[in-house]
Amino acid sequence: MIRLDKYISERTEYTRSSIRELVRRKQVTVDGVPAKAPDMKIDPETASVTVCGAAVRASEYRYILLNKPEGYVSSTSEHDGKNVMELIPPELRAKDMFPAGRLDKDSLGALLLTNDGALAHRILAPSRHIPKIYIVKLDRVFQNNYIDQFKNGIKLDVNETCLPAKVRQAENCDKLAFVELTEGKFHQVRRMFKAVDNSVEKLMRVSYGGLILPETLGFGECVELLHKDVENLFRPMDFDAFCDKFSVVFSAILINR
Fold first, then answer.
1. What CATH fold (topology level) applies to the domain 63-256?
2. Half-sphere exposure (Cβ direction) of 50: Cα atoms closer than 13 Å
3. What CATH architecture is 2-55?
4. pTM of the prediction?
5. Mean pLDDT for each consecutive 10-residue tract of the chain (257 residues)?
6. d(Cα 203, Cα 213) in Å, to the nearest integer?
């Protein structure tokens, strides 16, 4: 049994003081009955709680997949300019939610936000090597020798070499390519193509592990993930099979952006 105000504050962005005021105004219910006090004890496994008519999820953790547009920083700080938290509807936010990973301000695509620190650590830990797939629009035509260069590990500078990566030209455009990385160095994709005398004009992340960005999810839109979706993060996916299946779809999205 835990206090009602603790239960709500752990699962929403409401503060303890705001919860007290909402209880006083009878805007909080427990099992359909207005709560009598913010410190009343409830069973977190069975209680049905609403705040201002909206149900409070039983799970303490939330997992949101955002299709990030350009111009937003992968941050929770208001001092960094427009940040990705502004794109998450209030009903999907949770206390202490943050981006599990980063996308550059001018980059697009899949960004996971959660308040589950343990999961974020599993995703970001270098030892996990969770693959991420990107589609990029290049300044110059894709060259087939990129395949072996990426496979052997691109050297970014004297002291920094990338892990082996996969790259493949998209089917319907000689300036579009898919890249699979298992690490996350600063501006890595852009620096890798610069190292082979090309440059990236647009970059969009389209998968984390086996979690694929839904093609119907518009830029700036987000969706809450179910447990089975979250588990897909740790399931390997065949790069070539992915490219064969989604090349046309994601190429069209990037070209039309």
1. Pseudouridine synthase (3.30.2350)
2. 11
3. Roll (3.10)
4. 0.84
5. 92 90 96 96 92 86 95 86 91 87 93 93 83 97 97 94 96 94 93 97 96 96 91 90 95 89
6. 14
